[in-house]
Design a protein that fits this description.
- By secondary structure, this protein is of the alpha/beta class.
- It has one domain.
- About 15% of the residues lie in helices and about 30% in strands.
- It has a five-stranded mixed sheet, with helices on one face.
- A hairpin with a 4-residue loop joins strand 2 and strand 3.
- The longest helix has 14 residues.
- About 15% of the residues are buried.
- The protein binds zinc ion.
Length: about 90
């Protein structure tokens, strides 16, 4: 299992590529299926980030990150079950 620091390294690469979709490999399983979604109130320029791999369903969350233009933002003003895109219940690296 990848360490939290390895996930942070991958996070930096994917974050810097935004709003382009990165094909960076997952630090845990090596698949190029990393996903990054910002969670924020409508109009906010800072949010918390869900960052995970769709293949192995591991990842991290990062709080209070500036939201780059064009990034995928999930509004927090709706009930959790109505928020899109859906975020799987992934395991947090420690
Ligand atoms: Zn993975």
């Amino acid at each position: 299992m990848a360490t939290f620091d390895e996930w942070l390294d991958a996070y930096d690469v994917v974050y810097e590529a935004l709003p382009a979709q990165s094909d960076h490999a997952c630090p845990n399983c090596g698949h190029r299926t990393l996903r990054m979604v910002f969670n924020a109130r409508p109009g906010a320029d800072v949010g918390y980030v869900s960052f995970w791999c769709d293949t192995c369903l591991e990842g991290i969350s990062v709080s209070r990150a500036p939201i780059p233009a064009g990034a995928t933002v999930r509004s927090t003003d709706k009930p959790v079950e109505e928020r899109r895109p859906a975020i799987p219940n992934y395991r947090l690296a420690t």
